[in-house]
Write a structure and sequence with these properties.
With about 210 residues, the protein is an alpha/beta fold. Helices cover about 45% and strands about 15% of the residues. α3 links the parallel β2 and β3.
Length: about 210
């Protein structure tokens, strides 16, 4: 699996994940559990014998720190790392910083569920998953995919919704299928691509 390899990892648990807060673009750090998750992801990748040529991450510290911890576990801290807000989590707008239960009390459970689980309905002042995909996918096509197709092993440390946008394209999922897809923190997803950028093989290192 050394050719056309793309590995996606959602950052480890953040402080606001633990507190059940909408995070979005707010820059919060990892919890101790999140640090452990990121290190475990690095050990899992190391156990696969994977060597990476380049890594990509968002402009947010929880994804960057998760990447640093993974690379440290693999002894690969010297590889080029590109950071871009195109890979940031979905912007939750007015929901950012709110406890999810408080948001339900303010707007109603049904409305909050629609904001969280629809593809193209954005919360006030924020982004829908469709909006998130509109910035993630051009970056993937222009900056990440060419590296994979020329044979580089590429590691991406990002967020639940920015990774959903990538997975939707990689796996050919519908809007309904992707919003129902859960992406666990700190679990590497390994894709090997065909020359035409379709997926030849996928492995989930959850175990």
């Amino acid at each position: 699996m050394s050719d056309r390899l793309l590995v996606l990892v959602r950052h480890g648990e953040s402080d606001w994940n633990r507190k059940n807060l909408f995070t979005g673009w707010r820059d919060v750090d990892l919890t101790e559990a999140g640090i452990a998750e990121a290190r475990a992801a690095g050990r899992k990748l190391n156990a696969q014998g994977l060597r990476f040529d380049v890594a990509f991450t968002s402009a947010l510290v929880r994804a960057q720190r998760s990447l640093d911890l993974m690379l440290a576990e693999m002894g690969q801290t010297g590889i080029p790392v590109f950071k871009d807000q195109a890979l940031n989590e979905r912007d939750y707008g007015e929901l950012s910083g709110l406890n999810k239960d408080d948001a339900r009390a303010k707007w109603g459970a049904e409305q909050v569920h629609i904001w969280r689980r629809s593809y193209d309905v954005a919360p006030p002042g924020g982004e829908s998953l469709k909006d998130t995909a509109a910035r993630v996918l051009p970056y993937y096509i222009q900056d990440i995919l060419p590296r994979v197709l020329r044979g580089d092993n590429v590691l991406v440390s990002a967020h639940g919704n920015s990774l959903r946008a990538l997975i939707m394209v990689l796996e050919g999922l519908s809007p309904q299928q992707i919003v129902a897809r859960e992406i666990a923190t700190g679990v590497p997803l390994i894709y090997r691509l065909n020359a035409d950028s379709t997926v030849a093989e996928k492995r989930d290192l959850a175990a």
